[in-house]
Amino acid sequence: MDIENQDIQAFIETVKSQSDYDFSDYSDKSLKRRLSKILLDRKLSLEVLLENIRADDDLLEKIVKDITVNTTELFRDPAVWHSLRFDILPRFQQQSNIKIWHPGCSTGQEVFSMMILLNELGLLQKTHLYASDLNEDVMEVAKQGIYKYRFNEGYLDNFDSVIRENPRVNDSYFDVPYSKYFHVDKTRDNLRMNKQMLTKPVYVKHDLVRDPNPFGEVFDLIICRNVIIYFNYELQNKVFKLFMDNMSPGSCLVLGVHESILGPFASRFDKKFQAYFKK
Amino acid sequence: MSTKALIIGGSAGSFQIVIRILELFRPDLPIPVFLCLHRLKQVRKGFEETLNYNASLPVREPMDKEYIRPGKIYLAPSNYHMLIEKDLTIALSTEATVHHSRPSLDVFFSSAADVYGPGLLALLLSGANQDGTEGIAEVKRNGGTVVIQDPDDCEISTMCESAIKLTKPDQILTVSKIIEFVSLL
Ligand SMILES: C[S@@+](CC[C@H](N)C(=O)[O-])C[C@H]1O[C@@H](n2cnc3c(N)ncnc32)[C@H](O)[C@@H]1O
Fold this sequence. Notes:
Chain A is α/β, with parallel strands linked by helices.
């Protein structure tokens, strides 16, 4: 289905007038793709969809959830996790506590990855983990910690690469069993995170477009990957400001491997390893 | 209509051809070139390096929001979809795979067709699935030019055959003709 610019505008305006959500500053192409997929899946014309949205708040919530992209993985982009393991997290070793925020945490794989890595580094006990997302449904999945196994076999490869292997020292190998952190049940087709990790993070609904810091903390590490690719330049800058204002001295921001800080905030950070350190 | 951008898509069996094409570009290449290639999981690492080996211009995976410049060669990053925005910036997305592929040729070609219209030149090479068929059709619908590798000349013909079934390309060429064609750009 071909979505025109005026269609996307009509959608944005309708959502904005009916709710607190504002997609005006989302990347165009992605938003269009998502909207046309929604129309196709629901076999609706845009006019009918907008009419229904006006009449039904629950539907609006559902559409908002469908319009955002929730894909994630355990230890996505192992190189970033190597850098966290060897360069970044060890810097916080001497601190009495560590505060980490995952904005746009989706179904939680990134949060579990962080917990596993922190535990291997002996830092989990003293870490406070905060996670947030616009979409409460994905955070429900995060709280359960149960994922499909089929098509996610890559999780185990990523785990091996980040937790068992050491790219910095040839032939070194940490024999960490999967069962220390999760269990794979092939007949039920699931991968289930161990219970101890489920209650550790605090999950809160949070909209990066308009909400202030929801936790009332300043953070040592903010890890926000593959969220701002869906935002335009202006909204990205707004988000960088929110992050910067809530980071402690010496703290850093980790973005996705293909994301960078462009514009006015670039000079306020030092890019080192896979992270942006607050100046 | 003069060419404003060249996009190249391929999958299994296209790699060696892409390597040869990359040797051909002159340093004053006046247009941007985009590569959207499926990669096997095993060769995710070192893919960019290998493509750069004999390339006459640097091949680089772009960052999100990067401005597109003439004379640059952009490689769709692994595990992301690549799109082009109207303001000529790159947009990346982690949306679900399309035809089991991310990056997907359909996603990328369609978004390039929308931006460059008749100024787009699309080249589809050997491959083992149907990704690209819809994208090639979009290029044509938007007035662009389509060149498809001759299925008889493909290591794996599925991709090109499937595209030709839906869309009549401007040219169907063998590898040697493709090389000739690109060197004239
Ligand atoms: C692709 S996922 C990224 C998951 C994880 N960070 C990763 O990289 O694997 C993007 C997430 O951002 C969330 N998101 C989108 N817009 C948001 C907003 N305005 N505020 C907060 N979260 C948002 C989506 O709901 C989705 O769960």
